[in-house]
Amino acid sequence: MIKGVKIRFEIHNILFSIYKFNRTLNYSSIKKQINKQKKEDIAFLYNVTLNSMRLHLHCLKIINKFVKKRLRDQEKILLISAITQIIYLNFKEYAVINCSVEIAKKLKLYPGLINATLKEIAKNKNVLKQIKINFSDLPLWFQKKSRFMANYEKKQFLENFHKEPNIHIVFKDEERLKKFEAKLFKTSLVSGFLLDEKNFQNINSFVKGDWWVQDFSSFLPLYNFKKINKNQLLLDACAAPGGKSFQILSKKFNIVLNDENTNRIKTLKTNLKRLKLSAEILNQDFIKFDNKRNYDIIIIDAPCSAVGTIRRNPEIFFKNKGPNFEKLLSIQENMLAKASSLLNMNGFIIYMTCSFLKIETINQVEKFLRLNNNFMLSNFELKENKNNYSKFIKNNFMITMPDIIFDYKIDGYFAAFLKKIK
User: Helix, strand or coil for residue 419?
Assistant: First the structure.
């Protein structure tokens, strides 16, 4: 099989698996497919796969302009991938079209349709690149769950959700940031956006374990939480891959790390080793924790729809089914209830999700406070950059959309500090 056809056929199979069977890029069988590739091919594979999912709604609009018949799933996905490469990634048109036609033959599709459609699209690519999508083009489940959004928020989301994310990094301390050998746009005394994102894992200070990658929105809550001291015992209930735990450990505070997922625990341990940090690690279902040990602070980065990380996880919109909200909401409620039973008096639950949907964020916290009058919502106070970051704090909730700050892209995220008062 010709190399260009082979790698694009792998991309097609991965996209089809995600679309048809609601899998993710981290699903083990997909990971195995990716890991079999040569190093230089992996970058190509990720580039095309991720951008095909990010831009698939734009591609569908383009397809509808040129194809009037009802397409089979395989045809639709093959066209989405090819259009992404031709229009948005500016790959050589003839190579993309020829490979797509060969794949169509292998899949026993109609290669003539694929060939004719892509040639016509390629002729008009400069005009088609300008195509915009509307909020009504987004998945129906998302439209329903985001009815609370103001028009300006919907516009902001449409402008940002499909763009590649930037890399934000967090240092162990201020001194390591000051000695950083690459270019950085600072977001705090210990964090910033990388200006050159290529091959960041080869930077000497990364290899030495001076810093880790963590989205700005995920970093902000713990950076601004002022109630931690060395006499307390903390628990990160869903710790892997570790960003929030590293924020605590780098200050030499006492924290227990837990995660239910065995594969994610392996990643956590690898990250800890590179960073030269250590902690007690548990591999348990947090909801089934025993109550033999209490904690002063419990961090819950709860399982959620993850719509805030849509740029990093574009399969959320690409899958043919939406998230199971009934299951997710139940897990979130049970985790909050378990945390309340494990918490010492005057302790805190730091409840976070990589979602901005009300049902997973504000509504969950308000329901918890209604059912638990021994808790209160604590203040969310910013340490620095108040002029720039205060827009993210509303009624002591931290809420970000997939947004842009200082010309850099950040995730959607939510955080609330819940204090046990009696």
Answer: strand
Residue 170 — φ and ψ, nearest 5°? -125, 135
Cβ atoms of 372 and 340 closer than 8 Å: yes
Task: Compute the distance between CA of residue 392 and CA of residue 420 in angstroms, rounded to an integer.
Answer: 24
Distances (CA, A) of 102 to 12, 99, 213, 364: 12, 5, 39, 50
Q: Angle at Cα 69 formed by Cα 122 and Cα 317, nearest 5°?
A: 70
Distances (CA, A) of 339 to 12, 265, 344, 418: 43, 21, 10, 11
| CA angle (250, 256, 261) in 5-degree steps | 105
Per-residue pLDDT of the chain (422 residues; tens, 9 = 90+): 577 899 999 999 999 999 998 888 776 556 677 777 777 788 898 899 999 999 999 999 999 999 988 999 999 999 999 999 999 999 999 999 999 999 999 999 999 999 999 999 999 999 999 999 999 999 999 999 999 999 999 999 999 999 999 999 999 999 999 999 999 999 999 999 999 888 888 899 999 999 999 999 999 999 999 999 999 999 999 999 999 999 999 999 999 999 999 989 999 999 999 999 999 999 999 999 987 899 999 999 999 999 999 999 999 999 999 999 999 999 999 999 999 999 999 999 999 999 999 999 999 999 999 999 999 999 999 998 889 999 999 999 999 999 999 999 999 999 999 999 98
Take residue 372 and report the two structure tokens written for it.
Answer: 């638990």
376 Cβ contact partners less than 8 Å away, ≥ 6 residues apart: 369, 418, 419, 421
Beta pairing partners, 236:
257, 299
> How many beta carbons lie within 10 A of that of residue 145, not counting itself?
20
Mark out the alpha helices in 276-324 (DSSP H runs). Answer: 315-318
Q: Number of C-alpha atoms within 13 angstroms, CB side, residue 400?
A: 30
Compute the half-sphere exposure of residue 44: CA atoms within 13 Å on the CB side of its CA: 17
**Residue 90 Cα to chain centre, angstroms:** 26
Alpha carbons 84 and 78: distance in angstroms, whole number: 10
Taking the alpha carbons of 168, 170, 176, 177 in that order, is the dihedral positive or negative?
Answer: positive
Strands (E), 142-218: 168-171, 184-188, 191-194, 211-213
